[in-house]
What we know:
Blueprint: E1 5-8, H1 9-12, H2 18-32, H3 34-48, H4 51-66, H5 74-90, E2 93-97, E3 110-114, E4 138-142, H6 152-158, E5 161-163, H7 166-174, E6 178-181, H8 185-190, E7 197-199, H9 206-214, E8 218-224, E9 231-233, H10 238-247, E10 253-255, E11 268-272, H11 286-307, E12 318-320
Parallel strand pairs: 2-11, 3-6, 3-8, 4-5, 4-6, 7-12
Antiparallel strand pairs: 1-2, 8-11, 9-10
Helix pairs in contact: 2-5, 3-4, 5-6
Amino acid sequence: MGGYREFGGDEHYSSSSSSNLFHSVTAIVIWLGSVHLNVAIVLSSLFFLPPSLSLLVFGLLFLLIFIPIDDRSKYGRMLARYICKHACSYFPVTLHVEDYESFQPTRAYVFGYEPHSVWPIGAVALADLTGFMPLPNIKVLASSAVFYTPFLRQIWTWLGLAPASRKNFSSYLDSGYSCILVPGGVQETFHMKHDVENLFLSSRRGFVRIAMEHGTPLVPVFCFGQSRVYKWWKPDWNLYLKLSRAIRFTPICFWGVFGSPIPYRHPLHVVVGKPIEVRKTLQPTDEEIAKVHRQYVEALKDLFERHKVRAGFSDLQLNIL
């Protein structure tokens, strides 16, 4: 392939020594352990502290939800850089870019990243602090529920995440930021199945509309192996789906090594397709949006089929819901 480039987390940030492995595990715990930490704090307070101290702990957690965060904090970004550097070598993460030369540092792009899985953790390969992509300004748009979770909101904000609202999306594109989002969102997590990838894309067209309004290229991205780094369980009730929609987050029981939040070390292959050029249309019609949406979905399916053998998933099936 003409502009094909490959970046390996194990090559750029080697985890061969015990010291580097320690840093990799530490980075993973800081990055992904916040949910388990909150659960542990709440349960410990309820069962082991007197009511007055439990209320104090809950008050502090509540305070952490609303304290303003400086997303450019010197020490916060240092921590985020540490996470990006060492998390890539943990699995390890390998980034495959089909046409590296087509990405211009002065342009913004909309990356449609799939699948969501338990966490879309392969997106770390696209982060500006990781340094694989030639794009200086990148934001990851995530469920607003993340930003109401103590500790998680602080760490993920420093990593470059922001709430996935139309206002934020448009504002970042106007400011020259490339945006990474998971079009399937919380409903895709609800449709997760073992040994098959279900992508909830058929009715997800809002990101296409905003890309067209700004004339920003759409980029299909697929991560192989992400669905295997955690074991998980979730109910299949309709009430559960309604709850997920209401809170904009899908509660799911998941665990990693020895039941901890540390994921299993399964190689991740993040494949970035060629940008799909989008003509700027301030008020696109439904037909125009549907046409570009079909282009994106077909490009994503082609990307999946072209790379699944190389990634070690020759028998994996992809379903578009």
